[in-house]
Amino acid sequence: MTPKTIHQPPGQIDDLDACPAPHLQPLKDDAKPLAWHASQRFARFRVLAWTCGEHRETWYELCSGGGMAFIRRMSGDPVKPEVSQTHAWTMTEAHQVWAALLSGHVR
Ligand SMILES: [Zn+2]
User: Fold this and answer.
1) What percent of the chain has pLDDT over 90?
2) How many structural domains does the chain have?
3) Could you tell me the distance, in angstroms and rounded to a whole number, from the CA of residue 104 to the centre of ligand 1?
4) pTM for the full predicted model
5) Is 22 part of any domain?
6) Cα dihedral value 97, 82, 20, 92, nearest 10
């Protein structure tokens, strides 16, 4: 097992199967775009789930705050990433969108 390095260039990854974080499925042809906003809606929130940010330029977090849930999208510098986020849904709706995101049906 080789140690992981941060942001390995695509095509040179030999331990993807060992990665503990989910990788997004390729985008489907009929995928729907999500609306992403730069403004932060909740000052306090909890991260419920996340996708791999080590092997991907863009990574996502499922977050909950104020009884609602939303998805954050990060890209760029892992230390100071650019962040945008969806509007908030109920927990049930957010989990459905999260599943759709992972499977490539929305992005
Ligand atoms: Zn990974």
Assistant:
1) 73
2) 1
3) 16
4) 0.82
5) no
6) -20
